[in-house]
Amino acid sequence: MDRTVTQTDGSKIEIIAELAQGFEGKPMQASLLIKAAARSGADAAKLQMVFADELATPGYKYYDLFRSLEMSDEVWAGLVSEARAYGIDLQVDIFGRRSLALAEKIGIRTVKLHGTDIGNPGLLRDVAASGINRALLGAGGAHRDEIASALDILAAKQVVVLLGFQAYPTPTETNQIDRVRSLGDEFKGRSGLSIGFADHADPESPLRLALASAAVGAGATVIEKHLTLGRNMEIEDFESALNPDQFQEFVATLRGVAQAMGATSASDDYGMSDAELGYRKMIRRHVVAARDLAAGEVISPEEIVLKRADIEDPITSPLEVIGRKLIASIKANSALTRSDME
User: Fold this and answer.
1) pTM (2 decimals)?
2) In this structure, are residues 321 and 300 in contact, taking their beta carbons and an 8 Å threshold?
3) What is the pLDDT of residue 5?
4) Which of 14, 31, 195, 321 is the most exposed place for a label (fewest CB within 10 A)?
């Protein structure tokens, strides 16, 4: 089941429920998070595929924590199947060759590269050589040249440059959402590239729906947002996570924003909807003589006004009559018809 909203130009808004390390190494908890993501309307759920030796050396203070997050290959394969049964995609963060190889083996279609790895050409090349076709490129804190270099390596892949960063939660004024537009302009025309935004707004802020909506308005087609089973549980990254009911509201809001954005065309009417065309027809007043007009006169702007008149097939555009010669006399306050003019 595809929950993405297609805009009139064929683009889509994709909403990813970022589950991160919220599964805490527990398969059942991972399962519940995926179910919550699906029930809340997300297009994809994303977990961090953690193997301690890819993230740290033994003796590092969080090495044992990372070990506690490891799950078997069979569990990961089961989670992929479970997500698909719910009608959503399971995506994973990968941190090295082992997680990349497992992701490919179990049929993961999209992997995320952490902001640390945007400057890691070895892992970028591994992803480029893999059978996985799509990568989310974490670009929080990344410089322009780092993004460009990573995109060059991943040139054959579908890539989402994912802006935004986690600051537990991220202060509003530091989001720089205009970077969505800037990067979109800078890399316009690059095949397979889209821009996304990882939203880390304070869930208690009145802006918790507005910031991601602003990113969609700036051109983001992928939105990532943390989802938790309950903020009072204080699971990993709960500081910027939404509860499932809040996430459902978040999804509904972004879907509406994406629909409202639409797309314009090069046609004279911008490709406006039938509803707006109907509005145009309804509001246009009719061309009426401002004074008595004699046959043979050439109509000037001063000799007509716009009023509503009881007439079939009225003329609503002054430009249609200005400069034309009358072939019949018209009384003041009478609507002009096409048969009145040469």
Assistant:
1) 0.87
2) no
3) 37
4) 31
